Amino acid sequence: MPAIVGRGGVVPDVSAVVEAGPERSAYLEAVFTVGEWLGVRSDDPLVPVVVVEVGVVSSLRAPSGRIVVDTPWPEDRAARELVERIPAGTYEVEASWIEAPYEFMGEHFDGRECAAVRLRVRDEPVSAWEMALGVDDEVERLVPGCEVGFETDTAMGSFADAASWQALTEPFKRFWEKCEQQPGVVHGRETESVRSGEFEKVADDAAQADLITFPAEEGTTTVWIGRTAGGQVATVAVAPHLSWMA
């Protein structure tokens, strides 16, 4: 991997720490492959968790080449901008859906859920996976086996152009403020609903930049970079752990 440069300058080589192990790498490949079995339901080991669809959610414009992967909701910290830079351009955001049927109170459900999302940067195959570092991560404190990422208690993450982050997250800030000022009142969000509301999109047309949300897990969500055989970024992926999957 190339030398890591953050806001504090170049840091020592941490490739051995950020490289994904064989099990994690295999999962990141499988979760984006239709027909793959990812595991079984933790409450019913006879029911497999299967990838049933991988498809494009929307396009994302990133004119700065700087990417934030973080919750779009207001936080008392800086947004988690990735150290890695990508060529300025427009990219597709894809999602993977799984199904794991179950029964509840006599009713049957397909257990469909978004299992992972990725920003497709290049069409070349991924040769190796590594944990994506943020520009403010204290990489000198990383040890093998640890995972870092963005923190959220809203179960929502997003891909966005870093240079336009403030403008792109403004609809979420205004919605949050309205809810605090008028509790109990139903407010709408100034975002575009994508895939029946499973995802949301915000466009900053002045900057030609976008933000796209995706489901995340509460707590720490790790972001992964898939590199080509030549070391270039092929994809930026998020695959939250499915708590009910064994």
Can you describe what's shown?
- Mean pLDDT is 90; it is low at 2-11.
- The strands form 4 sheets. Strands 3, 4, 7, 10, 11, 12, 17 and 18 form an 8-stranded antiparallel sheet that branches. Strands 6-5-13-16-15-14 form a 6-stranded antiparallel sheet. It has a two-stranded antiparallel sheet with strand order 1-2.
- The chain contains 4 helices and 18 strands.
- Helix content is 12%, strand content 45%.
- β8 (102-104) and β9 (107-109) form a beta hairpin.
- It is globular, with a radius of gyration of 18 Å.
- It has helices spanning 15-18, 22-30, 165-168, 170-181, and strands at residues 4-6, 9-11, 37-41, 44-62, 66-70, 81-85, 89-99, 102-104, 107-109, 113-120, 128-131, 149-152, 156-161, 192-194, 199-204, 209-215, 219-227, 233-238.
- By secondary structure, it is mainly beta.
- The two termini are 32 Å apart.
Task: Choose one word for the global shape.
Answer: globular
Give the strand content: 35-45%
Helix percentage range: 10-25%
SS content category: mainly beta
Question: Helix segment count?
Answer: 4
Please tally the β strands and state the result. Answer: 18
For the record, give the distance between the C-alpha atoms at the N and C termini, rounded to a whole number. Answer: 32 Å
Q: Order of SSEs, N→C?
A: EEHHEEEEEEEEEEEHHEEEEE
Rg result: 18 Å
Mean pLDDT: 90
